[in-house]
């Protein structure tokens, strides 16, 4: 269910401030980019007299086609602004720490809430994406807000990517109705999908590597470890290496899959992408410095030994689930 009281309160805050600054999380994905850029474009079209600023150093290579953000601004600019943080569960994951300088902060998010923050915290965990929430916000106040083809393209990008092209749990009739609303704006989906899904030759070679080197535990947990050396061998960015998790999702009997990606930093941290079907695995991620959605979350381990420990824990968890449930494939 939507929360009309909080949505109205957010609109009132937006109307009250001449300057609005938008923020997102570290290592931004399509939903994060789409929600932040889509919200900015929508607010600029609606309130041309207001200053809408999105300044952020966090970038992702495969989303560069969405264009750059605004240039950095002085600290005093933040002080008089309303800050809106999208798609970010906790303050530690906000990529621009200067959000705290804003006069007031609003949170708009669809992750399982572990850390409320801001004067208004609008969280709808059932939504397939933060972009879906932004479109719901527009739909509620469409007599006042303006949607443009540019804003629609940003928001549709986030909806498509965070829902796995409308395949993941959380996609509802509302999701598709909001997507249709955006498509009615005239989005060039052929070009958009080309940007999102065409791969460089070396990335396809990397996919072949993953399929050849992936492993499966006794109880059906598929895993891949992408070391720093392998990333260099295929000329991959961290983001490109992280796509390896999607190559593991189609194995029958494997209802949980984990991709471990070397971060190449001094702490020897290894980023973990945790995905599942039927079974909620965000608790597993929380045991390893992470969290997120029930069936799509992230974590971090700090050694190969800790990685093996996490795999063992996942295997035991899936074993217990399979023994006590039916209907999984």
Protein topology:
Elements: H1 4-16, E1 19-23, H2 30-46, E2 51-53, H3 75-79, E3 82-86, E4 104-109, E5 120-123, H4 130-140, H5 149-162, H6 173-183, H7 189-197, H8 201-213, E6 215-216, E7 221-226, H9 228-233, H10 238-242, E8 256-262, E9 270-276, H11 282-286, E10 291-292, E11 296-301, H12 304-324
Helix pairs in contact: 2-4, 2-5, 4-5, 4-6, 5-6
Question: How would you describe this structure to a colleague?
Answer:
The protein is α/β, with parallel strands linked by helices. It has 2 domains: 4-196, inorganic pyrophosphatase (n-terminal core) (Alpha-Beta Complex), CATH 3.90.1640; 201-324, Diaminopimelate Epimerase, Chain A, domain 1 (Roll), CATH 3.10.310.30. It is 40% helix and 16% strand. The protein is built from 12 helices and 11 strands. It has helices spanning 4-16, 30-46, 75-79, 130-140, 149-162, 173-183, 189-197, 201-213, 228-233, 238-242, 282-286, 304-324; strands at 19-23, 51-53, 82-86, 104-109, 120-123, 215-216, 221-226, 256-262, 270-276, 291-292, 296-301. Strands 6-7-8-9-11-10 form a 6-stranded mixed beta sheet. Strands 2-1-3-4-5 form a 5-stranded parallel beta sheet. A hairpin with a 3-residue loop joins strand 10 and strand 11. Helix 2 runs parallel beside helix 4 and helix 4 (130-140) crosses helix 5 (149-162). The longest helix has 21 residues, at 304-324. The protein starts with a helix and ends in a 5-residue tail after the last helix. 39% of the residues are buried.
């Amino acid at each position: 269910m939507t929360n009309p009281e909080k949505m109205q309160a957010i609109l009132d805050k937006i109307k009250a401030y001449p300057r609005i600054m938008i923020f997102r999380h570290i290592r931004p994905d399509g939903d994060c980019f789409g929600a932040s850029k889509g919200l900015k474009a929508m607010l600029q079209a609606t309130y041309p007299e207001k200053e809408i600023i999105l300044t952020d150093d966090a970038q992702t290579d495969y989303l560069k086609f969405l264009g750059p953000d605004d240039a950095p601004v002085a600290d005093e600019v933040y002080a008089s602004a309303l800050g809106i943080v999208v798609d970010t569960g906790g303050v530690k994951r906000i990529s621009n720490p200067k959000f705290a300088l804003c006069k007031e902060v609003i949170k708009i998010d669809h992750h399982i809430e572990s850390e409320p923050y801001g004067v208004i915290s609008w969280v709808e965990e059932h939504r397939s994406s933060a972009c879906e929430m932004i479109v719901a916000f527009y739909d509620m106040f469409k007599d006042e807000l303006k949607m443009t083809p540019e804003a629609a393209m940003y928001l549709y990008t986030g909806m498509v990517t965070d829902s796995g092209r409308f395949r993941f749990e959380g996609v509802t009739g509302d999701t598709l109705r909001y997507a249709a609303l955006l498509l009615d704006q005239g989005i060039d989906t052929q070009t958009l999908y080309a940007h999102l899904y065409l791969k460089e030759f070396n990335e396809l070679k990397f996919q072949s590597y993953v399929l050849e080197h992936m492993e499966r535990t006794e109880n059906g947990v598929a895993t891949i470890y992408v070391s720093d050396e392998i990333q260099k061998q295929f000329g991959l960015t961290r983001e490109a290496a992280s796509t390896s998790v999607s190559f593991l999702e189609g194995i029958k009997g494997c209802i949980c899959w984990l991709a471990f990606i070397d971060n190449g930093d001094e702490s020897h941290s290894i980023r973990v992408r945790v995905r599942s079907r039927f079974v909620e695995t965000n608790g597993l991620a929380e045991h390893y410095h992470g969290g997120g959605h029930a069936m799509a979350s992230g974590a971090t381990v700090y050694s190969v030994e800790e990685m093996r420990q996490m795999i063992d824990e996942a295997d035991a968890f899936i074993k217990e689930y399979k023994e006590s449930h039916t209907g999984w494939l």
